[in-house]
Amino acid sequence: MRAVRILLIVAVILGGLFVVADRFAVGLAEDEVAEQLKTSEGLTATPDVSIKGFPFLTQVASGELDDVEVGIKNYEAKATGSGDAADTIRIANLTASMHGVAFSSDYSSATAATATGTATVAYDELLKAAKSEPTDVGFGTTARVTGLSDGGNGKIKVQVEVDPPAFGPQTVSVLSTVSVKNDKVEVHADSLPAVSGLSLAEDAVRSITDFQQSIDDLPGDIKLDKVEAAKDGVQITVKGSDIRLAG
């Protein structure tokens, strides 16, 4: 009995040491991955990296990690809009979960089998894609988008200022559907605004109310999947496969 008790104590101690060593190793690996991502993606701040699964050391021995989660704040993505857009758009929060991350024996390259995640784009950033400068829509009338906000039930509220020469400026709100189309975020008015005393051509009005915003060059070349309006901005779902993380 004494020998069995000693053996159990030794096993518990060795198990504890293994856990400590495993957690220490995963901490070092997370820091290294974060620094590599910061450099490769040209980030201004170090991202959050969390390597899931236990034990970590056996995953390393197999050459594949089960799940790696990455969080990046204020990511500057390349962008092309249909209005007065800048060439970048800031993503307030970008999170991605990489599954089946295989890496080479010398750790110089790594590829995730699949990736899913979310991204948040504030309304003031998405507004860059809209026509915020007065634009002629016929009959000497100009119009421009002055604001975007949450319209409830997954809709975006688009505020449009219309300035007919005979009636003076009017601000109207349009509820719009937001979706992903051709790898772009698209805002499309459900119905057109009524403007006092005028019957403007639909194409002219939609050239103001409807617009698209591309969000390109995301980490690992993940792609836009779905989008919906939320309180502080649009929530975008991203996904991808065979995502190259390094090398």
Report on the structure:
Helices cover 23% and strands 47% of the residues. The protein is α+β, with helices and mostly antiparallel strands and 247 residues long. The strands form 2 sheets. It has a 6-stranded antiparallel beta sheet with strand order 1-2-3-4-12-11. Strands 5-6-7-8-9-10 form a 6-stranded antiparallel beta sheet. It is elongated, with a radius of gyration of 25 Å. It comes from Streptomyces graminofaciens. This is Secreted protein. It holds the Pfam family LmeA. InterPro entries: DUF2993.
Count of all domains: 2
The share of residues in extended strands comes to: over 45%
Mean pLDDT: 80
DSSP summary, beta strand count: 12
Order of H and E elements: HEHEEEHEEEEEHEEE
Shape: elongated
The oligomeric state is single chain
Q: Features of this protein?
A:
six-stranded antiparallel β-sheet, single chain, alpha+beta, disordered N terminus, 247 residues
Compile the SSE list and pairings.
Blueprint: H1 2-40, E1 48-52, H2 56-62, E2 64-78, E3 88-103, E4 110-122, H3 123-126, E5 135-138, E6 141-152, E7 155-163, E8 170-181, E9 184-189, H4 202-209, E10 211-214, E11 223-229, E12 233-246
Antiparallel strand pairs: 1-2, 2-3, 3-4, 4-12, 5-6, 6-7, 7-8, 8-9, 9-10, 11-12
